[in-house]
Amino acid sequence: MLNKQGPGKIDYCDYTWNPITGYCWHACPYCYMRPMWGRFPNLSIQKFRLDYLQDKFPKKSSVIFVGSSTDMWGEWVPGWMIQSVLNVIEFTPKHTFLFLSKNPYRYLEFDIPKNCWCGTSVDGLANTSDNVGLLQYVLRTKVLKTWISVEPMIDKVLPNPLVFADWIVIGADSRPGADRPAIEWAEDIYCAAMCAGKPVWIKENYHYPETIKMKPKGF
User: Which of 108, 157, 187, 217 is 20 to 30 A from 200, comparing alpha carbons?
Assistant: First the structure.
């Protein structure tokens, strides 16, 4: 099922789409799905939603974030599930599909359609410190459109290693009572990206003093 996005949601895309669902074994403490898996254990069971593959996509070209409720590229996800999703995307060329994974190395296992953007996420903590380097390694083998989600930025992320990517999204921890990240952390990434000619999108939850919402060409 396609879920419409907008203000207060994942506003850099038009829709989210989750044909693969279930518990994510990265177990990030800030994951918005963790409380839901605790309250509704059935949601944590891995499912492949064949009915979602039969969704009617919008007539208007749209940006669709695939896998917003789990990491569909996790090592625990069977390859046939991922390939089934890619098959549908291959025959839906008018739309742009965003992938985001803390296991970007797995992009190497599949032929990625040209209308996809492959991304990884970093948060400033040790458990995601290798993700950017892994995505760069993937690019040595594959020609991909890439993006990086720096969300939630729990600690400072060095800006220069990020700017190889075609797009950078920055956000904060939205949990009640969470510490607010320093404005300078986002500013450093924004300035480095501008020098490299790369678009940046800073989510409203960061409370950055300016509205920075740049999308790549073609979105």
Answer: 108
